[in-house]
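Exercise 7b. Backbone tokens:
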């Protein structure tokens, strides 16, 4: 075998591998378009909470219906991603998954008022019991940090339409979330940097509650009357 044939025998399989990978990535990108569409619709639907109390329940119901399309998309994605190669391709869906974790956590907060756990988020997104996909802990935690930022905005906007109870609920919730994150020894750079921003969300919410208390608008525990 001459040198030219040797080079060809070595590099030809490489091109086949590259072509195969590109085909997989293209198929993943197409599926992600179908997942990102309901993602955007959920974001738009839930923006109503920043304008009015009315319609919050209906918005959560609509969001839950849209999550069905998300689950269908991840089911298709599970069939496409080669077995054992999750981390080779997960850059395609990491950001969208973090956003979806945030939205799932927001819906549960609005409906129930508590912090959703990782297993439940995986079920809402359709990432539980998948053979080739799973919900990364980092994506779940990023989603919770995004939730804190959204709630700090929600606290401010709640006051503008006269809901003075909501900032108190948010303040307690985010303070507990912050305490939970402080139990973690975060070594991931991106996650650590995002966590460092949490203190600004906490401060913003505390300022809203403090301003309400100065104006005598903090409801008491008895009957919702203002504190004089």
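Sequence design result:
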């Amino acid at each position: 075998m001459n040198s030219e044939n040797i080079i060809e025998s070595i590099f030809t399989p490489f091109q086949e591998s590259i072509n195969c990978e590109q085909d997989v990535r293209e198929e993943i990108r197409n599926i992600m378009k179908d997942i990102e569409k309901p993602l955007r619709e959920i974001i738009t639907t839930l923006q109503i909470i920043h304008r009015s109390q009315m319609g919050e329940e209906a918005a959560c119901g609509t969001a839950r219906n849209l999550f069905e399309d998300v689950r269908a998309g991840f089911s298709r994605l599970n069939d496409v991603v080669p077995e054992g190669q999750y981390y080779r391709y997960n850059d395609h869906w990491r950001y969208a998954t973090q956003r979806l974790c945030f939205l799932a956590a927001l819906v549960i907060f609005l409906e129930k008022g508590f912090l959703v756990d990782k297993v439940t988020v995986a079920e809402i997104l359709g990432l539980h019991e998948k053979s080739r996909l799973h919900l990364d802990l980092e994506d779940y935690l990023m989603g919770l940090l995004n939730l804190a930022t959204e709630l700090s905005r929600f606290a401010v906007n709640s006051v503008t339409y006269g809901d003075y109870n909501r900032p108190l609920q948010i303040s307690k919730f985010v303070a507990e979330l912050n305490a939970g994150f402080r139990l973690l020894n975060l070594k991931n750079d991106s996650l650590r940097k995002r966590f460092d921003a949490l203190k600004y969300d906490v401060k913003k919410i505390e300022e809203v509650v403090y301003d309400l208390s100065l104006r005598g608008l903090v409801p008491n525990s008895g009957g919702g009357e203002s504190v004089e």
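Instructor comment: The radius of gyration is 23 Å. Residues 186 and 192 are 6 Å apart (CA to CA).
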